[in-house]
Amino acid sequence: MIKAVMVMNTQGKPRLTKFYEFLPVEKQQGIIRTVFGVLCSRAENVSNFMEADSIFGPDSRLVYKHYATLYFVFVFDSSENELAMLDLIQVFVETLDKCFRNVCELDIVFNYSKLHTILDEIIFGGQVLETSSAEVMKVVEEISRQESASNSIGLVTKTVSGWRNR
Amino acid sequence: MNPFSSGTRLRDMIRAIRACKTAAEERAVVRKECAAIRAAINENDQDYRHRNLAKLMFIHMLGYPTHFGQMECLKLIASPGFPEKRIGYLGLMLLLDERQEVLMLVTNSVKQDLNHTNQYIVGLALCALGNICSAEMARDLAPEVERLLQFRDPNIRKKAALCSIRIIKKVPDLAENFINPVAALLKEKHHGVLITGIQLCTDLCKVSSEALEYFRKKCTDGLVRTLRDLVNSPYAPEYDIAGITDPFLHIRLLKLLRVLGQGDADASDAMNDILAQVATKTESNKNAGNAILYECVETIMSIEDNGGLRVLAINILGRFLSNRDNNIRYVALNMLMRAITVDAQAVQRHRATILECVKDSDASIRKRALELVYLLVNESNVKPLTKELVDYLEVSDQDFKGDLTAKICSIIEKFSPEKIWYIDQMLKVLTEAGNFVKDEVWHALVVVISNASDLHGYTVRALFRALQTTAEQESLVRVAVWCIGEYGDLLVNNAGMLNVEDPITVTESDAVDVVESAIKRHTSDLTTKSMALIALLKLSSRFPSCSGRIKDIVVQHKGSLVLELQQRSLEFNSIIEKHQNIRSALVERMPVLDEASFGGRRASSLPNTVSTSNGTAVKLPNGVAKPSAAPLVDLLDLSDDVPAPSSSGGDFLQDLLGVDLAPATQSGTSQAPKAGTDVLLDLLSIGSNPAQDNSVSTPDILSSAQDHKPAIASLDVLAAPSLTQASSSTASNMMDLLDGFAPAPPKPANNGTAYPSIVAFESSSLRLTFNFSKQPGNPQTTMISGTFTNLSSNVFTDFVFQAAVPKFLQLHLDPASGNSLPASGNGTITQSLKVTNSQHGKKPLVMRLRIAYKVDGKDVLEEGQINNFPRDL
Questions:
Q1: CB of A11 within 8 Å of any CB in chain B?
Q2: How far, in Å, CA of B529 to CA of B533, rounded?
Q3: Where is it located (chain A) (predicted)?
């Protein structure tokens, strides 16, 4: 099971965090800080895996990937395949890339809720839901369409009602 | 329009937060936003609820409290629009914890949404449920989820499958409801649904043995077929990762097969072929392929035994080890660590590759490889493996040397085939990384050297040579100084030359040079300097020609600011100057140090107390000086009836003295002030309680300067001359005593006057008889041979005898002949004692004794006083 997904920038600012096991906010922040502390002190040419038992309790592993200004971190237990998790990070990033056309940190900052939607289509309650970024894209696009469809309706009614109230 | 509602959009808020230069600024912005959102919540603002919650989620991510927004999530979920619901559910997953009361409120909305006509809304509800569902919700909503497993759209089916995992984890009783739907899911053609179905099946098998049995019987063949089709399937662009069709599905299938095959020979048999096929056919030049291979290996190692497959699997791992990708090497080492318990032989074959990984540039790989190598060492390969590791020690990173040294030392100690090899390897390690060697390790080395009497010459010459090349390694210097002090004569006259050695010419003054440089080095610490000082004293006797020079060096430390050095230097100077006649006896070679007791000491970090110590030290060879320990102080005082438990000070003293003092074997030495020899001897006992200190339990200066490390302190005793004894005399008259008193140390004599034997002690279960003898010409000293006989019908174990005498007597106990006493007089323990009566002719002998032993695991303690000694002893 995947325990947490974290995206943070190279300054240690969290950009997306999702914990699949309940943790109080302070604990989450502490973990993010610790993980960042470990990541930024790692050399370039080392493996992408880390023992995370000290951070997340027993039976925890951590895999991370470093893209431009962002760290993508997955934390999971021994029931997941480390190498597959590495590929899953790749799938996630590829999907983001397709969604935002050359994703950069700013896209992630400002499209915070969309990022969650995408993540929810890939990892569901700590389990891998979908591994084909094309499939994910289809669903995400459909959700955006639904959103804007009802939004435009909502917008019209709001303006109209606002106009009437005036 | 709400006048309090901040008009900022989400985008603007994020921008404002990003623009903050300091944490304080950020807090201010967030506080302002939160205040506005709270106001909006109080106003029950409809229009911006959705936007406010989106802001709150961002604020939450930054680590600020957002609990006040929880009810807003519920309101949004209850609203009809898709965007509101979406944000509502997102908020539900992020902001809410599993606190039941709030969650209960949402159950109904979720239930409605699970039955919604819009499948995306169904998807949102499933997603939230899969993330935060509690046990109650699981019970309430399980039927809906179960129904959705047959939904027409695959997206909903796969979400429902994963949601079911959460449900059965929360309520394992519900597992049986899912068995049939899952069996159907396993026949799916849609990859996404199949992955989630397999995942659900795996988790079902984990929570329910019934489900495991069912799937094992009904589905193993089907799953094997699915995997075969997948392996042989043509290129499918959709699920292609790096040229391999859906590695995730491969992995999930292999994982499920592992669960099914574990502990079941038939199921394991059914999957052997396909596993072999995956293991051989999968391409290993990409991460995805390696991920499959890795999973396959794990499955092969877990299912029931098939030797051929296992060798194949371990060979795959061996291949991984030479992969250029750090990640692959890392997982391979992890897996080999587990595989070693399954098939050590197969892992051994990859020893060379693993050894290469010890030299990896990646620290975490090095560490793992080193651990693995450590597990691989056995008697047959210890020599080449150690050689490799020691060679690598030369070039390894500084920060890795500590780990590496510790492991090498541990390997050498554990598997050393012969002493010369042990000494050779340890010398190499000391030369390369002596500063990383822990104290216990070089202590152990000294013990081994001391025990290898035929290698003394060889060792001291090798150390001398090593010291010529490098003098930077503290522990090398210490060992060398100790050996030169002890065996300096062998160094000079090339005694005990081995065939493998090159002869070297060392003059006496060369040897002194080495020790002198050790004591003068700035980097030498107190321990090294003290050891060097003692070595010098010893050399002054071994090399009479250098005596004058040594005296000069010793004298230089008369002004040392360190009290210990200053004091020793004064004492040693006095010995060299005024006591030539006893010097050689004083600085005799250390008796052989007992390996067993030293090992015992290391094993039990807790100091033995008098009452709990057993006979581990029984093997202590005679002649090792065993000074009195503090716990005996109370025994020594015959007017004191209550035997006090050993104080921590006493334990400390025992530690200081460096031997595992079991009472049965220690000598209680109580000395009269005029026993000048002992006072003298005592001077030499650096590290033991100083003679001039009347309180026996006070730690000595040297050790207190070193944080009371028993290990170090004990070595000070190793470094001290052989005749080490503590005494209770005072220092005030010490110098006087030194002057004008120089007898040779008492020597035991075999013949003596006969005295009638007495029954010293008799209880219902035990009898102790004493036989006496005297040395001719030494009427003060009485040799007593005690014989213990067991009168009961039970065997006594852990038998310990202790004796104490008043201050005018001096008592020395030799080790007992054993520590278990057979029943009904079928055997005896004998122990000899030596009593010196300083008031000979005036006062008779008197002795108090305490005997502790175990009967049927129960401790028994007997005590008594012996007053019936023959009058003229």
A1: no
A2: 6
A3: Cytoplasmic vesicle membrane; Golgi apparatus
Interface of A with B in 39-58 (CB under 8 A): 43, 45-50
What are the extents of the domains in chain A? 2-165
* Whether residue B795 sits in one domain with residue B662: no
pLDDT tens digits, A103-161: 888 888 888 888 899 999 999 988 888 888 888 898 889 888 888 876 554 444 444 44
Separation between Cα atoms, residue B511 and residue B543, nearest integer Å = 10
**Smallest Cβ distance to B247: which of A50, A84, A124?**
A84
B784 shares its domain with B681: no
List Cβ neighbours of A121 (8 Å cut-off, separation of 6 or more).
A129, A130, A136, A139, A140
ipTM: 0.88
Residue contact B327–A47, C-beta within 8 A: yes
Contacts of A159 (CB under 8 A, 6+ apart): none
Residues with Cβ within 8 Å of residue B315, at least 6 apart in sequence: B346
Residue B408: closest CA among B371, B435, B380, B444: B371
B432 vs B405: CA distance, rounded Å = 9
Chain A residues with CB-CB distance to B52 below 8 A:
none
Distance between CA atoms of residues B530 and B665, nearest Å = 29
Residue B458 has pLDDT above 80, yes or no: yes
CA–CA distances in Å: residue B153 to residues A143, B6, B123, B150, B300:
15, 42, 10, 9, 36
Residues A46, B326: C-beta atoms closer than 8 Å = yes
Q: Which chain B residue has the Cα nearest residue A143? A: B120
Q: Which residues of B touch A88 (CB under 8 A)?
A: 248
| Nearest by CB: A112 against B58, B64, B247 | B58
User: Is residue B764 domain-shared with residue B731, that is, in the same domain?
Assistant: no
Domain range for B616 is: 595-738
Mean local confidence (pLDDT), B549-568? 84
Tell me the one-letter amino acid at B472: E
Distance CA B403, CA B413 (A): 16
Dist. CA B334–CA A49, nearest whole Å: 11
**What chain B residue is nearest to A113 in terms of C-alpha separation?**
B54
Give me the CATH topology for the region A2-165. Answer: Beta-Lactamase (3.30.450)
Rounded to the nearest angstrom, the minimum Cα separation between B97 and chain A is: 6
Domain count for chain B: 2
Per CB-CB distance under 8 Å, the chain B contacts of A38 are none
Q: Enumerate residues 182 to 201 of chain B having a beta carbon within 8 A of any beta carbon in chain A.
A: 191-192, 195-196, 199
Strands B240-241, B244-245: parallel, antiparallel or unpaired by DSSP? antiparallel
Inspect the interface and report whether the beta carbons of A81 and B159 lie closer than 8 Å: no
Distance of CA B580 to the CA centre of its chain: 48
B608 in the same domain as B709:
yes
Q: What is the pLDDT of residues B816-833, one digit of tens each?
A: 888 888 888 778 888 888
B159 compared with B283, residue with greater pLDDT: B159
Q: Quick check: B792 and B764 in contact, CB under 8 A?
A: yes
Is the Cβ of A111 closer than 8 Å to some Cβ of chain B?
A: no
* Residues B599 and B730 grouped into a single domain: yes
Task: Please tell me the distance from the alpha carbon of residue B325 to that of residue B338, in angstroms, as a whole number.
Answer: 21
Placement of tokens 């004058």 in the chain: B548
Is residue B102 domain-resident? no
Residue keyed to tokens 């391409």: B283
* B799, containing H or E segment: strand B796-804
Phi–psi pair at B652, nearest 5 degrees: -60, -45
Q: Select the residue of A46, A130, A151 nearest B83 (Cβ to Cβ).
A: A151
Query: In this complex, do B192 and A125 lie within 8 Å of one another by their Cβ atoms?
Result: no
Residue B11 lies in a domain: no
What would the two tokens of residue B626 be? 């065993």
Domain of residue B767, CATH code: 2.60.40.1230
